Amino acid sequence: MTASTPANSTDTSRACGVTEYHSAGLIACTLPSGHVGLHVFPSSKSSPAQMGYSLVHGDRRQAYGDPKESLERVAKLWEPILGCSVSITQVALCLVQLKIARELHASSFDNLADIAGYAELLSIALGETDL
Q: Which residues are within 8 A (CB) of 129 and not within 5 positions of it... i.e. 6 or more apart?
């Protein structure tokens, strides 16, 4: 953690009551509901790929559990809607496509970090990357 405040974080800091800053470009906030939320702030120290990796191997891993189980859970939920079987690879690719669609509308660091994160998530789920 670092004590320095990201340059573009002041509005969010006041709105959510920042509790701690993370060097990877994340700010942990205590929301009015009492829940902790994370905000992504790009810094010169982190690339989208680094941020995606940090998200998958950090708080989101704890929040959402095992990557393969998480993708399998989503696949099972999508199957009745789509009317066909859905693989974990298809889930990850569809989530990446969602972020690409958003990126085409309005470019953001968050979209690119999430694309990298979904690729990392799939790589772990397929056993190509160690946790």
A: 120, 123
For the chain, the first-to-last Cα distance in angstroms comes to: 22
Contact 95, 75 (CB under 8 A): no
Write out the two tokens for 27: 């700010």
97 vs 94: CA distance, rounded Å: 5
Q: Quote the tokens at residue 7.
A: 């340059």
pLDDT digits (tens, 9 = 90+) for 51-86: 888 888 888 888 889 999 999 999 999 999 999 999
Amino acid at 42: P
State how far the Cα of 33 lies from the Cα of 25, in Å rounded to an integer: 23
Alpha-carbon distance of 26 to 12, in angstroms, equals 12
Residue closest to 124 by CA, chosen among 71, 85, 45 = 71
What are the pLDDT digits (tens) for 28-41?
Answer: 555 566 655 555 55
DSSP state of 126: T
**Three-state secondary structure call for residue 76:** helix
